[in-house]
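Hi,

Apologies if this is the wrong queue. I'm a grad student, and the batch job for Tyrosine-type recombinase/integrase from Caproicibacter fermentans produced an output file that my downstream script rejects. I'm not sure whether the problem is my script or the file. Here is the sequence I used:
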Amino acid sequence: MKTGSPATMQLFGKGKKTRRVPLAQRTASHFKKYLQRFHPDENEYSQKYIFYTMRYGEHHRMTANNVRVFLREYGQKARKYCPEIPENVHPHLFRHSRAMHLYQRGMDLTLVSQWLGHANLQTTLVYAHADTEQKRRAIELAESSSSPAKKNPSTGKYTVSDEETLKKLYGLR
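Support response: The file is valid. Your script probably expects a header line. Output copied below for reference.
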C-alpha cells in the first residue's frame, strides 16, 4: 500500500500483470489497523505473507481455498441473522458486487474495466446488463416531471394522419 494521500495498493493479477488501484479511505484505515494488529514489527517491504494461517505455531501462506472455505462458513453463519446473504458466498462475489455497485452509481464502464484489470472491455460488459432496479429508476425518471420529454412537450410527439403510413407503422402493409 502506498503511503500518503490518496491511498493506493499494487495488485498482482493473472498473467503476472500488476496494476495500482485507489483505496477508499475507510479501506485504507481498516488495512492499517490489520497490519498494526497482525504485523506490528513489519514495514511495507516485508516479505512475510499479509494474510496467513497458523499451523503448529508457524505462519503459512493463506491459499485461495482457505479464503473460499472461510467465506462459505462465515456466509452460512451470517445468513442465520441476515437471510438476504446469498447461499453461495465466495471471493469473486465481492469483486463482482463492488464492480456492479461502482457501475450502478455512475462509474464509466471503461473505468470499471480498468479497475478490474480486464484487458478487453468485452469482459466487463457482463456488469453493464441493467438490473431490475436500474430499469425501474429509468422508467420513473422518464415518467417524472423532471424528464426532458416532459419539459418540452412538443418534442418527441408525432401525429400521423395518413392511413397508408399508419398501416405501415403497425405492420399491416
